[in-house]
Amino acid sequence: MHGLIDTHCHLDAAEFDADRDDVARAAMEAGVGTIVVPAVERANFSVVAETCRRYPGCVPAYGIHPLYVDRAVPQDLDKLRETIADSSPVAVGEIGLDFFVEGFDAALQEYYFTEQLKIARDRRLPVILHVRRAVDAVLKHLRRIPVCGGIAHAFNGSRQQAEMFIALGFKLGFGGAMTYERALRIRELAASLPLEAIVLETDAPDMPPAWAGKRRNSPAELPRIAEVLAGLRKDDVEHIAATTTRNAMMVLPALA
After folding, report:
1. Which residue of 3, 40, 129, 239 could cross-link 65, Cys pair, CB 3.0 to 4.6 Å?
2. How far apart are the C-alpha atoms of 32 and 185, rounded to whole Å?
3. Closest CA to 39 of 61, 66, 17
4. CA 11, 44, 132 angle in degrees (round to 5)?
5. Considering Cα of 26, then 28, then 31, then 36, what sign does the dihedral take?
């Protein structure tokens, strides 16, 4: 399996500081040709940029993650505009809403989310979405501020919600969560949604697959995640790899 695209991997994260070179090399050797590295706050824009400069096949996305908005200030949006104008990111991301963590400020999250949607719309860039316990709210804002598609990362909604994202030009990201036998709903969606709607991701160092236990996740796990998807769909793994790669390049045109 060659040319796989990990559409979501935080290779810049501190968890990789000790052995990032080895992690990047292992991913390439495993057949992962491209890794999308999304930023989460202004403070790591430059780290993401440096990571992508240093490792062939790594490409950046820039955005402010909903769980980092309490550390953000409105000027960070100016920095985001500037960073996008000065570079060639594949998307605005990781942006979205997260109504799962206790004590979240919904209004603050929605302010940064909608402002970043406007930036993506104005720059004609796709978005990489973080959506947790907030699918309907995210869809509401996407209808109000239409962007040129993107990826709903770590998709965990209903079939109906999946179809709404697809209708808006989005692909759905599937990764480690799909490898757990008890994740019945995610596995059912992975097996039955149109393959043209699916992209693969690891979210490394987070969301390790079932076989990794509590170990740190890494982009080199992607081929095995592709095998799980092939098994769920009773499909050939090479076909899964080729199609999900094509899907990623379609929704993130800068990859092509």
Report:
1. 40
2. 27
3. 61
4. 75
5. positive
